[in-house]
Design goal:
The complex is a heterodimer of chains A (about 400) and B (about 80). Chain A has helices at about 5-10, 20-30, 35-45, 100-110, 135-145, 175-185, 190, 215, 235-240, 245-250, 280-285, 325-345, 350-360, 360-365, 400-405; strands at about 50-55, 65-70, 70, 85-90, 115-120, 125-130, 160, 200-205, 220-225, 230, 260-265, 270, 290, 295-300, 315-325. By secondary structure, chain A is an alpha+beta fold. With about 80 residues, chain B is mostly helical. Chain B has one domain (about 5-75): Orthogonal Bundle (Arc Repressor Mutant, subunit A).
Chain lengths: ~400, ~80
């Protein structure tokens, strides 16, 4: 493909980093119809408008989702992409594949689709980009034979997604992979047959680091946490200090609730666990010295969502703590109550967070039979971006110093 | 034990043959519980008497014949 033919796209090939334009060009070498994709893209950049439209037959027999129909407005000019549907494939929990499984998916997509993929979409599915209507069913059949199924789309349960959990991460407070698999298998009907006011997402993070962004991107976020004290290995704390980690500066001063004390002489840490908000910062900086406690479980948040209709919403804590061994049954029971209430009361395209906003949290809690609890925090870390200039910082007031002085009558 | 009758199922099927529906609207029109309409629709899909069709942003349910009709219209528009 010459840069003269596609001058705007050629700008996106510059630099040492990977480029989607280069990848499309490589694909077009053995699938000439894909050149039309470059043609349409160049035109979109020129005119600053998309030329995709969607709709029509969107799936395979018996399924109401999993395929996102895409058609080109420039079908006459770019016949190679007149139909360019996306197939959304349910990813394995934690994104673990064998190389053989990946080869199979790629071979299937070479045969029935454009060969272009997106691993993974922002909700976690394997995204296979670009096929024609008559290839949908045979492609689905081949994927099913290889052990894969379509994921969710439309007003349905979206493919549940989980972090790598205990398979690769020592911080996991519950088995995210098992729960993700369990929910996916239990709710096949909800996943493939859109019946609700709008989409509904489950995301499972094993610890408050929240690697799958459950608090911001899922209607029902399940985030691992612990109830007892952070485990401290003082020998490892010493080692970190001796290796040059400035514990005072890098850990203590970054603690959001100032619940950590460090003794530089003994090189020891003390944590006031009652005031710890499980931000994970200290554990992330000193992973060998600090660990989540033993009494593990999860916290459940409701209503996180991206901006599409009413603006972004962060999840609202509705269950502060549930022990890991009770989690699966509890989640299913609660989720079904949430769906019943939302399905009964939700307006067309109203996410569950918007319904809670409209009818009130009290209404919601009564409907799902949860007792109000002061730990049901509405906005944990509402704004993750705090910016300030050095000169704006004022010395912190220590109220205890003032109170003690007052007590002494000074 | 199903909470709906064969007559209800027939009523749903007749409506589906008219145009693509969202089940919530269908439940309102037929004055039935949405949950029952959902169950009937699932059953009809399993029997091959109903199918999904999408406007692009919304998934509707209708009969396979109506889906073919909608697709034929799309072809004509090209």
């Amino acid at each position: 493909m010459s840069d003269e033919e596609f001058p705007l796209l050629s700008e996106l090939k510059k630099g040492p980093w990977p480029s989607f334009v280069k990848e499309i060009e490589k694909t077009a070498e053995h699938k000439p119809e894909i050149k039309d994709l470059l043609k349409q893209l160049e035109r979109s950049y020129e005119d600053k408008i998309t030329y995709w439209k969607h709709g029509g037959i969107v799936s395979v027999r018996g399924y109401g989702g999993g395929v996102i129909g895409r058609y080109s407005f420039l079908a006459k000019e770019c016949p190679g992409i007149a139909e360019f549907h996306t197939m959304r494939v349910n990813q394995p929990a934690g994104y673990f594949y064998t190389t053989e499984a990946l080869r199979k998916i790629c071979d299937i997509w070479e045969e029935y689709g454009s060969g272009l993929t997106n691993m993974h979409g922002s909700t976690g599915d394997i995204i296979l980009l670009g096929t024609i209507t008559k290839n949908l069913q045979p492609c689905f059949n081949a994927l099913a034979k290889a052990g894969f199924d379509l994921g969710g789309s439309g007003s349905a349960l979206r493919t549940p997604n989980a972090c790598v959990g205990p398979a690769r991460c020592e911080f996991a407070c519950y088995d995210t992979l098992e729960l993700c698999y369990d929910l996916t298998m239990t709710y096949q009907d909800e996943l493939h047959r859109p019946m609700w006011p709008y989409k509904f997402k489950f995301k499972m993070s094993g610890c408050p680091n929240d690697c799958v962004a459950a608090r911001a991107r899922s209607d029902f976020g399940i985030i691992g946490t612990w109830k007892d004290e952070i485990k401290i290995d003082q020998e490892q704390v010493k080692k970190y200090a001796e290796e040059g980690v400035d514990i005072q500066k890098q850990v203590v001063e970054h603690c959001p609730t100032k619940c950590i004390e460090y003794d530089p002489e003994k090189k020891e840490i003390k944590i006031d666990n009652e005031n710890c908000v499980r931000c994970m910062h200290c554990i992330n900086v000193l992973p060998k010295a600090l660990r989540p406690g033993d009494e593990k479980g999860a916290c459940i948040l409701l209503g996180g969502k991206a901006p599409i209709l009413e603006g972004p919403v962060m999840g609202w804590v509705i269950v502060p703590f549930i022990p890991a061994d009770e989690l699966a049954d509890f989640v299913k029971d609660l989720a079904e109550k949430v769906w019943d209430w939302w399905d009964e009361n939700g307006k067309y395209r109203e996410r569950v967070a918007e319904l809670v906003e409209r009818l009130g949290m009290m209404n919601f809690l009564e409907a799902v039979e949860l007792e109000p609890d002061p730990r049901m925090v509405k906005h944990p870390r509402e704004n993750p971006f705090f910016f300030w200039r050095e000169e704006d910082l004022k010395p912190r007031t220590d109220p205890w110093k003032i109170w003690r002085e007052a007590e002494k009558g000074l | 034990m199903s909470e709906y009758s064969e007559e209800d199922k027939q009523k749903v099927l007749e409506k589906l043959a008219q145009k693509p529906w969202q089940t919530r609207d269908l439940a309102k029109v037929l004055k039935m519980k949405k949950r029952d309409v959902d169950k009937i629709v699932k059953e009809l899909i399993n029997e091959g008497k109903a199918d999904y069709w999408s406007s692009g942003s919304t998934t509707y349910v209708t009969t396979p014949e109506k889906v073919q009709e909608m697709e034929a219209k799309r072809e004509d528009l090209k």
